[in-house]
Amino acid sequence: MNIRVCAVAREIIAVENVTKVYRLGDVVTYALRGVSLKIFEGEIISIMGPSGSGKTTLLNMIGLLDKPTSGRVIIDGIDVSRLGSGEIARIRNDKIGFVFQFFNLINRLTVLENIEMPLIPRGIPRSKRIEMAREALIKAGGDVSWLPKKPLQLSGGQQQRVAIARAIVANPRIILADEPTGNLDRASARTVMKTFLELNKMGATIAIITHDPEIANCTQKIYIIRDGRIVAVQTPDPSRCILYTQ
Ligand SMILES: Nc1ncnc2c1ncn2[C@@H]1O[C@H](COP(=O)(O)OP(=O)(O)O)[C@@H](O)[C@H]1O
Ligand SMILES: [Mg+2]
């Protein structure tokens, strides 16, 4: 018998009642106070909220960079809370690409060396790595003439395109970005958002933390987080997406 499941969106990320408590000496911070959310395959969502509300902590949980104090994170059907750190790192490297506000490029390496970095532990030969790096940089809206340069020879907007190329070079299905346009001028922010939308069209599931409503309005859902809790899920207004505003 042929059983087909039609058009049922599959959840690729599930966060279930996650809390995160930081203890530094006598100081205890409740960064997340019971957060649940589901991100479906092929979705692009944004997370907004005041400084200190727990946005980065939440993205670090989703991205398996840190572990919840309680609750579960399920990535692609795998309950990560049951795994050891080696297996977690393997899933992270396999499925997730990260983009940060301050690019986090290694300034003493060339653009090419930065982009090909995630490919080295995979044992991909150098000629293939160069080909994949070039392809990723073009997909990220960059120019191959940047490859021999050092990151600091590029503008902020160009460095962020290099960082996106590094995030996508190994073809992750999930891209997580923490204020990726927070340090960019409007024109660069627009280019970066355009790139995320194109990657999403090609199938990537994307979550973006932002303070900029014109970025959030380009996504499909806006999660509002306050004081460690999701307090609202808003429907974006696409006419106010940065691609369509002055
Ligand atoms: N590694 C850490 N150690 C201690 N406290 C932390 C750590 N990371 C974040 N916090 C605290 O957790 C809260 C949430 O931080 P964060 O997730 O970075 O917020 P946001 O990204 O929304 O600005 C803040 O009060 C912050 O000071
Ligand atoms: Mg943050």
What descriptive keywords fit this protein?
single chain; 246 residues; alpha/beta; Rossmann fold; 6-stranded mixed β-sheet; 4-stranded antiparallel β-sheet; 7 helices; 29% helix; globular; binds adenosine-5'-diphosphate; binds magnesium ion
Describe the structure.
There is one protein chain. With 246 residues, this protein is α/β, with parallel strands linked by helices. It has one domain (11-244): P-loop containing nucleotide triphosphate hydrolases (Rossmann fold). The protein contains 7 helices and 10 strands. The strands form 2 sheets. The chain has a 6-stranded mixed sheet with strand order 6-7-8-3-9-10, with helices on both faces. The longest helix is centred in the last third of the chain and has 16 residues, at 186-201. The chain is globular, with a radius of gyration of 18 Å.
Topology at a glance:
Elements: E1 11-24, E2 27-40, E3 44-48, H1 55-62, E4 70-75, E5 78-79, H2 85-95, E6 96-100, H3 111-116, H4 126-139, H5 156-168, E7 174-178, H6 186-201, E8 205-209, H7 213-216, E9 221-226, E10 229-234
Parallel strand pairs: 3-8, 3-9, 6-7, 7-8
Antiparallel strand pairs: 1-2, 1-4, 4-5, 9-10
Helix pairs in contact: 4-5, 5-6
The structure holds adenosine-5'-diphosphate and magnesium ion.
